């Protein structure tokens, strides 16, 4: 009898275990997982590149590699020669990473004001320095050297207590100069010492400790996913981790995986294909055209204008993507006012035009057939046409993709006034803006036509 009860209990446990282990550690199984809805709805995220590279804050976050990697660049080599003693090492920058003005609640208030719905912080870039007190990064983490703080934990907590943004983490699989990695590489990645002792334990550590809902992997490309044990890790993430129901991962999990597998594709930096893709994707894009990390010699002309940011946002969302806009904080833990201004402008635009962005879907057409400054989204029965250039002189906007009906109504988001329009000779619509007092328009930089009761041109 006891044996019978014990046996049924065992079977019960095994069945339940099997049910929890829905996904196998291979791509054909992992690729069947439905995308968690929150991610597609969110559309806008903020990327944050922060680390020891924020101390020299010169050229880019690749500073160490550009100084001492395989092909040093002369600007970085000269910068070191001219400004530091000959025996100065990269690790000597770390004590200068003090983050003394880092105020997580102030960051959160700005991140929320940008209108973004999620944040992705570099927990560890290719330099290997961790922004959390990792058990696997002795004396090369933000608690032992530099700020003496758990930067990941402090930001995660502030985001969760003072906003409804989702928190995500970037994590570089490889480390340029890690001896264990270099030794595996030397043996054509037939050994996995670095993966077993460093990369995987770090990944499990950040997920268990900080429960990121985005795991944004990078630094994968020199080795195959089998070296990184990527599919085993992602299967654990989907089946058993504390974020198994809500987490999303990108596509940087080994050479050949990019643009092929993962919850969303990043394909390449600044990825913006200009056409609808059948798989969810993300455009990661720095506000500083030349660097993801902060640069002290940054110029205003290096920074995308708010018009450029909104254009990328409209193109991306129309084509089914999310946009991940990057800022690089300083070594002091401040966010430069120029980045702050862009994020606040973005938030201002989204506070008026957000119904065309959040939770929207790609429409029948992505860009207009007649007007290259118009990008479409849809939500329920409504269609939105985002106009990137206001026709100052003609005061007419022709939409070639739209077909009007008897019940069609058009207004600009932020202004309720119904607009005049006529059917164009080819069957589209010409919206007449003569009746609009341009100074009364609430939206700046780009304008969204809300189109009610329309159909589309069949081609
Ligand atoms: C953060 O949230 C707490 C409680 O949720 C609130 O008391 C506090 O005022 C908030 N702080 C800021 C800076 O918003
Ligand atoms: C976040 O921003 C939204 C809209 O931009 C605002 O309504 C909300 O009050 C903000 N939340 C916090 C906690 O600051
Ligand atoms: C790589 O291998 C060569 C010989 O096979 C050895 O001399 C060298 O020290 C190794 N380098 C590393 C980083 O393990
Ligand atoms: C990594 O994968 C190999 C086989 O691909 C497996 O033998 C090993 O146990 C895995 N290691 C970890 C730490 O997941
Ligand atoms: C950013 O770089 C791209 C490509 O190099 C260029 O087309 C664009 O004009 C630049 N924008 C700014 C603001 O520097
Ligand atoms: C926009 O639409 C036209 C077709 O109307 C197409 O030829 C063009 O490549 C599209 N994409 C962009 C980025 O303009
Ligand atoms: C027009 O669109 C609105 C909002 O989508 C909808 O409620 C209404 O039924 C539509 N009217 C007609 C005549 O189709």
From TrEMBL:
Chain positions of site May be important for catalysis: 284
Domain Alpha-L-fucosidase C-terminal residues, every copy: 366-452
Glycoside hydrolase family 29 N-terminal domain sequence ranges: 17-355
Catalyzed chemical reaction(s): a neolactoside IV(2)-alpha-Fuc-nLc4Cer(d18:1(4E)) + H2O = a neolactoside nLc4Cer(d18:1(4E)) + L-fucose; a neolactoside IV(2)-alpha-Fuc-nLc4Cer(d18:0) + H2O = a neolactoside nLc4Cer(d18:0) + L-fucose
Swiss-Prot/TrEMBL GO biological process terms: fucose metabolic process; glycoside catabolic process
Membrane-spanning intervals of the chain: none
Entry keyword annotation includes Transport: no
Enzyme Commission no: 3.2.1.51
A Pfam short name: Fucosidase_C
Keywords: Glycoprotein, Glycosidase, Hydrolase, Signal
Signal peptide: 1-18
GO MF terms held by the record: alpha-L-fucosidase activity
Primary role: Alpha-L-fucosidase is responsible for hydrolyzing the alpha-1,6-linked fucose joined to the reducing-end N-acetylglucosamine of the carbohydrate moieties of glycoproteins.
Protein family membership: Belongs to the glycosyl hydrolase 29 family.
Protein name: alpha-L-fucosidase
Annotated source species: Brachionus plicatilis (Marine rotifer)
């Amino acid at each position: 009898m006891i044996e019978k009860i014990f046996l049924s209990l065992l079977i019960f446990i095994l069945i339940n275990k099997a049910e929890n282990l829905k996904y196998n550690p291979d791509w054909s199984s992992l690729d069947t997982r439905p995308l968690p809805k929150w991610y597609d709805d969110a559309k806008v995220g903020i990327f944050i590149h922060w680390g020891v590279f924020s101390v020299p804050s010169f050229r880019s976050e690749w500073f160490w590699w550009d100084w001492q990697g395989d092909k040093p660049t002369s600007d970085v080599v000269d910068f070191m020669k001219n400004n530091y003693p000959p025996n100065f090492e990269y690790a000597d920058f770390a004590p200068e990473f003090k983050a003394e003005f880092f105020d997580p609640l102030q960051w959160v208030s700005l991140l929320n004001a940008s209108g973004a719905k999620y944040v992705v912080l570099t927990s560890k870039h290719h330099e290997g320095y961790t922004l959390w007190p990792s058990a696997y990064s002795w004396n090369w983490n933000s608690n032992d050297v530099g700020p003496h703080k758990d930067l990941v934990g402090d930001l995660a907590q502030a985001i969760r207590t003072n906003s409804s943004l989702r928190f995500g983490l970037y994590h570089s699989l490889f480390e340029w100069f890690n001896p264990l990695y270099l030794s595996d590489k030397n043996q054509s990645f037939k050994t996995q010492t670095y993966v077993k002792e460093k990369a995987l334990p770090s990944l499990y550590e950040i997920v268990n400790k900080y429960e990121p809902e985005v795991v944004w992997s990078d630094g994968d490309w020199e080795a195959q996913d089998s070296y990184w044990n990527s599919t085993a890790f992602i299967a654990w993430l989907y089946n058993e981790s504390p974020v198994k129901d809500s987490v999303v991962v990108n596509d940087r999990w080994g050479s050949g995986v990019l643009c092929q597998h993962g919850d969303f594709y990043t394909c390449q930096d600044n990825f913006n294909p200009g056409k609808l893709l059948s798989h969810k994707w993300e455009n990661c894009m720095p506000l500083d055209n030349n660097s993801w990390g902060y640069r002290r010699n940054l110029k205003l002309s290096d920074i995308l204008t708010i018009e450029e940011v909104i254009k990328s946002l409209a193109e991306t969302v129309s084509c089914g993507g999310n946009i991940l806009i990057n800022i690089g904080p300083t070594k002091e833990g401040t966010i430069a006012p120029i980045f702050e201004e862009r994020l606040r402008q973005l938030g201002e635009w989204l506070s008026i035009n957000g119904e065309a962005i959040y939770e929207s879907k790609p429409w029948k057409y992505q860009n207009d057939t007649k007007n290259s400054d118009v990008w479409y989204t849809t939500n329920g029965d409504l269609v939105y046409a985002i106009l990137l250039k206001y026709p100052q002189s003609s005061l007419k906007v022709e939409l070639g993709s739209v077909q009007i009906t008897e019940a069609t109504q058009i207004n600009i988001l932020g202004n309720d006034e119904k607009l005049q329009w006529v059917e164009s000779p080819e069957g589209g619509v010409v919206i007449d803006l003569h009746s609009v007092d341009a100074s009364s328009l609430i939206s700046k930089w780009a304008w969204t036509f809300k189109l009610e009761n329309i159909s589309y041109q069949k081609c």
